[in-house]
């Protein structure tokens, strides 16, 4: 059976190649597009989680992803420490703003220079040095690579120019950081902050601290996010994410189904005489059906293997051309898309297989 199916595929190389490529396109859609979406969000979440903190304390109703304002007073940091004592190791004030570079928006953190080790959690300045006044900026390696940014170059935030004094190791929470007073001056919000990175004094008590801060009378209008849950915050702000992922997987499976259905149906029509000969010499309906399905499975398997290879290559090309882009090809997602592609192909072959098995051998032998 396997050898017969291979011979049938080799006999029509152009159709075989087109079918394999079509299945591969579906696999690439399912892997690369979803990998870009989840990979980019996952990379942002991992960078935020690199801060040496356990919690983010922000104003109630403030969206950490889409809002850009400074609703808090920096004096709340010492008040938090005073209210909870040793349960809080420190509270780092952060002012968040936005800049446009290379036609893309990037978050900018305003921090006190002495807080950089707490925000970066051991990640270093690999070139240059940290800013010491309100005119300097530190960018991360990926932004520097994509924008060909060198030390001494100038970038602007809301029309204000900053000189790049240093390049930070990849993994710091945001692509660019400046002195907190600089962003306050730009936005004319002295003494204000967007949120606090809070480090728990007792790692085992982080969850309790997250519950107790909003329960304190002084902080009743505050919300607390566990830093480990930041991906959920991102996904919540992009509510259509899961629907998009489901749609991409459905489309990739649909492509495999339709391609195999068309290819195998055409194959069955063209091989009417061959099927008649096989049935005339004793081939059963089951044998004929298995032949069609095995052939379709080979096409799908070839398309899946090619699609995975093309996905890896496409991901490498995209991340090479756009260093800030993350294409995440996970084993779990690869297996899911592969299984769905093969199953969809097998289902697509069922109708042609049934037609082939139902052929009347006498009519098939006289088919022109």
Give a written overview of the molecule:
It is a single chain. The protein folds into two domains: 2-44 and 240-365, no CATH class; 67-77 and 87-195, no CATH class. Helices cover 55% and strands 18% of the residues. It is built from 13 helices and twelve strands. The chain has helices spanning 2-11, 13-49, 76-84, 116-120, 141-147, 180-187, 206-215, 230-237, 241-270, 272-280, 285-321, 331-357, 361-365; strands at 55-59, 72-73, 88-101, 104-111, 125-128, 136-140, 154-157, 160-168, 176-179, 192-193, 195-200, 222-226. α9 (241-270) packs across α11 (285-321) and α11 runs antiparallel to α12. The radius of gyration is 29 Å and the shape is elongated. It starts with a helix and ends with a helix. The mean pLDDT is 83.
For this entry, give a set of tags.
12 strands; ten-stranded mixed β-sheet; two-stranded antiparallel sheet; 2 domains; single chain; alpha+beta; 368 residues
Structure summary:
The protein has helices at 2-11, 13-49, 76-84, 116-120, 141-147, 180-187, 206-215, 230-237, 241-270, 272-280, 285-321, 331-357, 361-365, and strands at 55-59, 72-73, 88-101, 104-111, 125-128, 136-140, 154-157, 160-168, 176-179, 192-193, 195-200, 222-226. By secondary structure, it is α+β, with helices and mostly antiparallel strands. The protein has 2 domains: 2-44 and 240-365, no CATH class; 67-77 and 87-195, no CATH class.
